[in-house]
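Example 334, ligand zinc ion.
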Amino acid sequence: MRLEGILGQRRAVAQLESEMAAGRLAHAYLFVGPLGTGRGTTALKLFQALNCEDRGGETACGVCGPCRRALARQHEDLLVLAPPNDQASAQIKVDELREMIRALSFAPFGGGTRLVLIRQAQQMNPSSANVLLKTLEEPPPGNILVLTVQDPGEILPTLVSRCRRVNFLPLTEEVIAGELTRRGLEPQAASLRAALAAGSLGRALELDQTRLRQTLERLLEHIQAPAGPLGDWSFAEELVAPFRGGERLDRQGLVEALDLLALYFRDGAAQAAGRPQAALLPRAGVEFRGLDLEAASRGFGLVRACQSQVLANAAPELAVAVLLQGLHGAMPAS
Ligand SMILES: [Zn+2]
């Protein structure tokens, strides 16, 4: 049976389809890829394909009882475990994990295949992970476990080695923009969102365009005003603050926020090079205030350097403060 309606993940889909056709599905999978790239949807489609009542169909029918209950997340054989509210800073509860494992010892209610989806599997603490180990190695018959992570380095190697891996790639801007347009967004707004979505449809759907624009305006205002190192430092702290949740720093989130600034310079360069049709931000009402090609290229390089430093575990406030200082020099005086 084919898996239908999964955006832009041809290889992952082909892998699962051929394993399903050959009767060689693994009992445990690790879906690896960025948030919002269809890992959960794929698990759902796999469940439907395995439990659809229309066994002769090319794809899951979508209308039989099991298909509909799965779509409404109400099928008793489709179990989902995730940190509370799907928060990346919260932990998957060990009690819920134990309860899930107990449930697996009973045959699936519908007589088909039960699927357990563990979202954000990196949010299991070591004792939860240990509780899961034995089940992952040999789940009772009729059960498939799917763990999703962004990076397999975030979970114990003993978990990784017990799962078959399926890779999910960041979605291209075209795929994201196409889907947003299909959902009724204006093409211009869709391509702007797609450019800022870092390959994630989920992120594209969640983007708050007004807030992003306000953040960009504040950044530009700060960069264009002459500011001493102390001013840059406190502004950097202010910029980083929303990405700190207690002990944890959302480096990826900060890097994605800086993408907006990178896009500003990329667009500025396009504009200065006489290719305004390639620029996305003017469609959202952003102006470039006399940015020339050299300044735009330099700004773009500085933002990218800062992003790599943040990902390479630099102190984020420091990396951002250095970026701001570099940008004061790069921007045209207002
Ligand atoms: Zn069906």
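Summary: The two ends are 61 Å apart (CA to CA).
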